[in-house]
User: Fold this.
Amino acid sequence: MREHLILRVVTKVLLPFIILFGLYVQFHGDFGPGGGFQAGVIIAAGCILYGIVFGLDMLRRAIPPGVVTFLVAIGLTIYAGTGFATMMLGGYFLDYQVLAHDPVHGHHYGILIVELGVGITVSAAMLTIFYNFAGRGEPDGP
Amino acid sequence: MLLILLVITALTIVRMRSILAVIMLSGIYSLLMASIFLVLDAVDVAFTEAAVGAGVTTVLGLVALSLTEDREKPPTHKPFIAIMVVVITGVMLLFATQDMPDIGDPNAPIHQHVAPRYISETPVKIGIPNFVTSILADYRGYDTLGEVAVIFTAGIGVMLLLGRRRKRRPGDQE
Assistant:
């Protein structure tokens, strides 16, 4: 789709807003609708849009597949690690109230950290799936 | 009205043979479903359905379509048994809905079990205004951990199934 000038310009203009909206949904999920799942999908969709319009190689240069693979595991590690961290601090698994002196703040921090892990894993997993499907169609394989 | 559109879309999807059209109609189906969730005041679910169902699933379907052909093969057998099973199950489900409480009935069992505790405790114990997030990430933290593990497994599974050709590509022996 390299020859579609309008698509390319519109994509370039829209992309920062898509990513920004994703981050808003990610970190505002405790006050409004949204959270890690939705934010991860929105950010992944923005990256996939870039990959479709500008070509897979440009997307690979912007976000290397190796990093994405790494992030899939990092997100889950953040989530499970929060659980183990609360155990280290003397609570139960995923018992957030030990994360801060004030139990209410502890719950809040716990939710934010866990949602961050969810968002990272979801967006990275979606991108991994896209990379593998799209890379398969190339003449010399992924 | 939305439900009628939903049924029409579903029937069209079943009748279609062109996979491209089916993927597009599935996106429309998800968007209609998201509108229904919105009408039912389930904003978070509607958001997820719109983002995942109408957005990413459609794109991934199109990408997967580029690896295969656009036409579905005509079925080789007549699906009488399948239709029988579907009809019987549907009749049983319709029969079962007779016993269900009305939509929005505050005395329904589902609103009496743990929901009152979640609603009354969330502002005090967790201090965030969105109940859905507090239930998802705090009260039901284990379940969400499981969901993230499922997505992790999906990503890793696709990678292992489709992404292994690079190493064995030039001059491979097998």
User: Anything to note?
Assistant: Chain A touches chain B through 57 residues (CB under 8 Å).
